[in-house]
Amino acid sequence: MSTTILELQDASIFQKDSLVLQDVNLKIQSGEFVFLIGKTGSGKSSFMKTLYGDIPLQKGEGSIVDFNLKKLREREIPFLRRKLGIVFQDFKLLPDRNINNNLLFVLKATGWRDTAKMNSKIEDVLHKVGMKTKGFKFPHELSGGEQQRVAIARALLNDPELIIADEPTGNLDPQTSVEVMRVLQDINKAGRTILMATHDYALILKFPSKTLKCDGGKVFEVVQRAV
Hints:
Blueprint: E1 4-15, E2 18-29, E3 33-37, H1 44-51, E4 59-64, E5 67-68, H2 77-82, E6 84-87, H3 99-109, H4 115-128, H5 144-156, E7 162-166, H6 174-189, E8 193-197, H7 201-206, E9 210-215, E10 218-222
Parallel strand pairs: 3-8, 3-9, 6-7, 7-8
Antiparallel strand pairs: 1-2, 1-4, 4-5, 9-10
Function: Part of the ABC transporter FtsEX involved in cellular division. Important for assembly or stability of the septal ring.
Protein name: Cell division ATP-binding protein FtsE
Pfam family, one: ABC_tran
């Protein structure tokens, strides 16, 4: 039986004082792969930021991985983010340390202490994204696609209930985008729920899945051929 991972009811999304999206009603169930599309400036990023606590939910109701977005306190945000895996367009890897130490930094920051368990977890997530042999390289020694694979591995470290990927292929060429998308698909098939914002319609056609669209201040589901 699938459980509801994300639900918004009559929600309004604000960027500072500006209303970006209104009357948002949606549900995402565990195990789903959901695309979020929309033109630049349509509210995709503000929507995503609201989900991981960067922008407060001021109006309406919302819950994500058992956290109430309307009542979310600042001190609870780190705990919310431990149950989410967040993948950004620009990788956000630390340039002064190798890949293993990038991942080790995250584990230590989220309370891991056992060295053997940390090393085993790092090996496991790098294996899942096809980067097991690259742990001793520094970010600048990797291609964009490889860096994004590492960013996905980093998002998997704390076994998130939901992965939020904000334009994860935005800085990649078409072939590399497909490779990264296949990694995300494999992770989804293994049981992870993924919400991915993208403006790459070719990817949506190649990997059809449930699609939400931000347009005209609303969020609505679109049928594939209408994209």
